[in-house]
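Notes taken during the Thursday session

The instructor put the following on the board and asked us to keep it in front of us for the whole hour. The protein is Queuine tRNA-ribosyltransferase. We were told not to look anything up and to reason only from what is written here. First, the residues (376 in total):
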Amino acid sequence: MYKLLKKSGKVRRGEFHTPHGVIQTPVFMNVGTLAAIKGAVSSMDLKDIGCQVELSNTYHLHLRPGDKVVRQMGGLHEFMNWDRPILTDSGGFQVFSLAGLRKIKEEGVYFSSHIDGRKIFMGPEESMQIQSNLGSTIAMAFDECIEIPSPREYVEKSVGRTVRWLERCKTEMDRLNSLPDTVNNKQMLFGINQGATFKDIRIEHAKTIAKMDLDGYAIGGLAVGETHEEMYDIIDTVVPYLPQDKPIYLMGVGLPSNILEAVSRGVDFFDCVLPARNGRHGHVFTKDGKINIMNAKFELDGSPIDEGCQCPACKNYTRSYIRHLFKAKEMLAMRLCVLHNLYFYNKLMEDIRNAIDGDYFEDFKKEKLEAWQGRA
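Then, after some discussion, the predicted structure tokens were revealed:
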């Protein structure tokens, strides 16, 4: 259940009540594709850095270790020792990212495994069954993430198929939740709006899925090639047509500046691999913008990554030391920078929530964007 606590213009401050706890929104979900954050970050670490929701991937966990293995181990929460909400991505993004290894049909998608080439089939029912075995808090509907740009005729056909797939997802989710031995019989289902950059297709699709009374709604198929301006334009277009009494999730986005802009347009949920991926390569976020810790100018820098930051890296180590770790190819370098970046994102979301509560979000947004300009 989504509870709207405050609204200022389009900006929303809410709470999302789930079987695994209450999520304060707006929220950034920390991405652990294979039930782990890349960069040697544990579930205990996630709690220490303020993570509310962990996100894992259906397709990848189906391949390794296998969703049936996870089910036998008690579901994802038990398997990775995480008692807070988990969202599982449906595998729909892999329909986009593994374009050279798949074939799309009405019944679903035929993949060749990116690991060993073996044949895999995933349709709406299979995606729901895998996510039910994983026992996540929130399951995402199986959809096709459409490449931008794509011909209008293809987008129309794809969106029509995504609607039919969503209906099948809902039916199968209801069936699975009714079974006595289901890992999580209160599993929630989010639908996904698609339509590339065609506003009329996006609007019609939003209207159609809004009638299905799902637990939440996502805007998918963005941050895949379009400009930031196009992305913001689509968010502005779609949000008014999605149910306002349900959480709205912008998938796979993105930079801190993108998050601020999307919050101001009514978005509640975010996820992106970017903070962890950047951290593993020594690119770290600060209140003044992003820096590359491996730059020579940090060789004798005795300050933390970001002055005033309370993350484990900044409280204990210097830029000079972390740079040395990268140069020496020590794993600790990645761990510290991933911890810092995820803390930065989680703290940003906390600051956004406080700004909305305190009626100063617009000033907060302006101040942050000016500080990051030219650096992020």
